[in-house]
Every structure is written in structure tokens, then in C-alpha cells.
Amino acid sequence: MAVFDKEQKKNFICILISGLIICLIILFKIYSRLNIDEQPTYLRLLIYLIPYIIVGHQVILSSISNLSKGKIFDENFLMTIASIGAFVVGEYTEAVAVMLLYQIGELFQDYAVNKSRRSIKELMEIAPASAVREGKDGKYEVIDPSDVKIDDILIIKPGEKVPVDGVIINGEGEVNTSALTGESIPKYLKEGDEILSGYVNGEKLLKIKANKLYDDSTVAIILELVEESLDKKSKSEKFITKFSRYYTPVVVISAILLFIIPSILTMNWREWLVRACTFLVISCPCALVISVPLAFFGGVGAASRAGILVKGSNYLEALSKVKTIITDKTGTLTTGEFKVSNVYLTSSYSEEYVLKIAASLESYSTHPIAKSICDAYDELYGESRNNKFNKEKKNNLLEINEVKNISGLGITGNLDGKIIAAGNYRLMNEYKVDIKADINSNEYSFEDTLVYVTKDNKLIGIISISDKEKLGAKDTLRMLKSDGIERIVMLTGDKKVVAEKIANNLGISEYYSELLPQDKVKIVEDLMEENKDDKNNLYAYIGDGINDAPVLSRVDVGIAMGGAGSDAAIEAADIVIMDDELNRIEQAIRISKRTTFISWQNIIFALSIKVIFLILGAFGIIGMWWAVFADVGVAIICILNSMRMLKNNQVIKKLDFSKNM
Length: 661
Prior knowledge:
Blueprint: H1 6-31, H2 41-68, H3 75-88, H4 92-124, E1 131-134, E2 140-143, E3 153-156, E4 166-170, E5 173-176, H5 178-181, E6 187-189, E7 194-195, E8 200-201, E9 206-210, H6 218-229, H7 235-266, H8 269-283, H9 286-305, E10 308-310, H10 313-319, E11 322-328, E12 339-345, H11 351-362, H12 368-380, E13 401-406, E14 410-415, E15 418-423, H13 425-430, H14 436-439, E16 449-455, E17 458-466, H15 473-482, E18 487-491, H16 496-506, E19 510-512, H17 517-530, E20 538-543, H18 549-552, E21 557-561, H19 567-572, E22 575-577, H20 583-618, H21 624-642, H22 649-655
Parallel strand pairs: 11-18, 11-20, 18-19, 20-21, 21-22
Antiparallel strand pairs: 1-2, 1-3, 3-9, 4-7, 4-9, 5-6, 5-8, 10-22, 12-17, 13-14, 14-15, 15-16, 16-17
Helix pairs in contact: 1-2, 1-4, 2-3, 2-4, 3-4, 3-8, 4-9, 4-21, 7-8, 7-9, 8-20, 8-21, 9-20, 9-21, 10-20, 11-12, 20-21
């Protein structure tokens, strides 16, 4: 009984009592000398009405309630009319059996739906109930997570959930990230590392500084996405809803005609009323109405447990039709963990000064390349970099005025009345800086990203930035192709030689380089235009940055890398990969295809059985008991089929090839 909720327990008890009574009636008919069938009609009716009302009163009341609201054609109405019709023609046992077996099917259905909902609701448990804030006087207070302010100091005790996103300022240790990423392996974090809400602290006390409000934190975003996903139906679900709207009235009218016309012609109203009632029982669409949404609900839950957030079952279905994947490079195919590999001097200035100029500018940017330059300067020449949380402390960097971030190009500023800049070659062209003589030197590593540093429109140095492919990226792309992805296209703002190197290493034959954000949108639109009429050749885009947001919202399925991804990318995307692991996309595609396949299995199986049984019932070849199988039996089979999506462990294990990387 523990597997049922309160309402289900009540229905279960009614089913047991009714089933016991009808069994006793049947046994009494078989073994007693007193034949119930020979008793007066009113007595027989009274005997059978007792188990009928016990088990079917909710169905009858629901059909009456729906009738008063103008909702006539639903399964409650069909079951009520069919069972009453069975009473009218004297098929009392069949009348009770129809309602009893229907309620058994409904109970099983409710259990399956609740089980699938629990797989989603488990995500809701990642939300912390409280937060412990350290006051200026050193005292601690327990507050609601929504009351946490940016820069608040929070204490995370062992075993507690992290309430908001922040940075560790004291302590180190392992945290459990499974609620967000689906990974059971703990993650080691130390002072200075970012920690996300929803993580569960391990065995050591951590002190963190909040850098986001609760509503903007990872856990709040996840919960909002999960709630939104329940309202977005797939095309298959919409088809079933629309189909049922027309299907049920048609079969009800057909049943009425099946009773009236032959009865007039043959004058045998009893036989045709039985056939009409049988027809109504068979036609009940509950197998379709429940099993298809249940399959998608299970698919969304399976993806969630693997660290893949799907914002709606419509996106899960669309993902199964994706044939072309367009992907960003940095942070998606590569780690995005840039590192300064070299500093080339093109003037009399020292390496320290070139890095200092660049770091002073880049301290105003959040770009990964900017961080790598600041980190390199700090490591070699600077104090501990802390300007991200304390804007007043800029280490020993230069005071820059009139700082301007130019998207896709770089950053400029004013130093003692002279323009300084750090950016790519397009920025140099815009400022008319001659770099040709310097970049033709053989000593430069052309396979790295280059940041040009200028002062007073003169090149004073070039910083070489290296990045590397993500572990398993090549294997993931290979598996995507084997799973039906026909085309993979890489887009990047990086220079051609860097893009070519990454593309060759990963086996990507089609790529576009040196792109601005608006260029990415234009290329994606051109690619989609090529197959705009093919509904089974959809496009997906994978990205993580702010500049990817316009493209993510433009394609059929936008996929964001959520771990290191920007809020804008996560907001614009339809699917979010919580741990930035590229192989999650492979998992998502397989889950989507499995979900869609199961939903169409249910549709084809249910419709085929119903059509066959409707024909047999209309011709009187089968009776009410077979009709019950065509309704309840088919529904249970379809629901069991859908529940396979709730058991996603085998799917995930088959796809987890990280150990072989």
C-alpha cells in the first residue's frame, strides 16, 4: 500500500471490495442450489449494483460533472454508458466487470504517472531549505536562500546543500554534484573555485562568498526550467490530444448508429445494444491519451537524471529528428581553459610591461582569454588577483580610463592620454595598426590564438594563447555520426589556422572561422535555408557563450553547456548540459530517439488493436470481455511500454565511454 498515495489507496480498497463481492456472487452461482439468475430482476439488479456502485461511483460522478460543464465525450462517459447498456440488456456480470477492470487500469495508470512525476520531482529536492549567513559581528544567522545578497558570506556545513552560486573563500574538499550533473563521482574544490547551488558539501566546512542572488543561481534556474518543461508538449502529444477530440465523438455517434439502424431493420434491439456497448468500451482512447505523454515524461526524467535538462517534451522530440549539428568551438569542443603559452615582443618594452598593459585591460572583461592573460600576469608578476569581487583592488595593474569592450574584436582604453588596445587582427585593422611584418615571423605559433597588444597605435607585443580539445570530443563526434547525424559544422571567432587545427584533430570537415556574433547567425540561417522544407532534417546548435545566445534561439534545438555557460546561453537554449560533458549530447539524442520510438509504438499498437476489435465488435464476433481487453489490456500494455523510459540506467551505461577516453 505504501506505493500508492491517499487517493489511490481509496480506489484500491474500492476495487478490492468490489472484486471480492463479484467473486462471491460468481462462486455462489456455481456452488449454490439457489440460482441468482432465476431471482426477480429487481433483486438481481440490486445484488450487482452494490459492487458496481462501490467501484464505479467516481466514474459516474465524473461523467455527470463533465456533462454539466459541456464535456461530454471522455472515457468516463464511455464507460458509464457502456456499463449501463450492459445492465439494460441483462448482462449484469459484464457490466460490473467492465467498470471493475476499467478502474484497475486507471489505478495502474495513476501509479505509472505518479512514478514518472516522482522522477522529475526528485530534482525539486536540490533546492536548499535555508542558508547560514555570517554577519559583520561574526555571528551566524539562518535565513531563507531568497534573502541572500551578493557578497554575503555563507557557511556550508558538511552534508548541507549550497544555497546560491558563489566562490569558496575558505576551506576545501569534495562536493557531491550528482543533483546537477548526474555524476556520482565527487568533485574536489578549493579556495578560489566556483561552487554552484545544488551541490552537496562533503565532510569539511566551507565558507563561500555569494556572487548571485537565489533567483539567478543554478538551482533556481533548473527548477524553473523543469516546471516550464511540463507545459511544453511534443507534436506526438498534441496529435493525440487533437485526435481524441475528434475520435471520441465519432465513435459515440457510430455506436448510436450501430444500435439504431440494425435494430430497426432486424427488430432485435437487444443484440445490437450489446454490440453498441461493446463498441463503446473498445473505443475508449485512454491508452493513447496517457501512454504517449507518459513516454515523453519519462524521457524528460531520464535525461534529467543524466544531467541533461530538457525544457519541454517538444524539444526532446525535435532532437530525435536532428540531422545537422552546428557547434561553437571554445568551451564546447575545447576546454575553454586558455593559457598564455608565449609573449612575443615587437618593441623595446619588456615582457612584464606587455603583459601588464594586456592584463590591465582584460581585468574589465569576463572572457576566458581575458582571464588567462590576467592569471598569467598574476602568476609571473602580480599580486593575487581579486578584482572580480573587489573592484577597488586591482593588484598592481595600471589605471585605465575610457575602457571599451568591442564584441568579437577585443578591448581598448586610455592610459595617460594614449590609446591602448588588446585584441585580434580585426581590431588592429580597425585601428590601422600595421601587424603584417610581425606576424610573418616564423617564430610565432600560428596554431595558437594571438592577442595583439598596442600602445599609441603601435604594436608592442603579441600574446599567444593555447587551448585544447575536450577529452572525448573526437569520440563523441564519431558516435554522433554513427547515430544518424549527417553533418557537423564548427563555427568560431578564432583565426582560420586555429580553427583548421581543431577541426582536423576532431574529424570535422566543415568549419567557418573569424566570425563575429552576427556572422554566426547569418551562417546558421543560410545552412537552415538549404533544407527548410525537410521536416525530418532539423538543426541543432551547441554553444556556451553570450555571443551564442542569438544562434541558440534561432535553430530548431539549441543546446547550451550549462556548467561554464553564460546565463544568456542557458536562457536561450532548449536543452542544457549541466556538466559540460560533450558525450551528454550523445546521450540526449539516444534518449530522444528511444522516447519518440516508444511513443509511436504505443500509437500504432493501440490504434491497430482498436480498429481490429471495433470491426469484430460491430459484427458481433467478440463480446464485452474482449472489449475490456481492447480497452484496459491495451492501455496497460502501452503504459508498461512507456514506463521503460523511467528505467534509463542501461541506456546511460551503454553510452558512458569516458573510461575509454
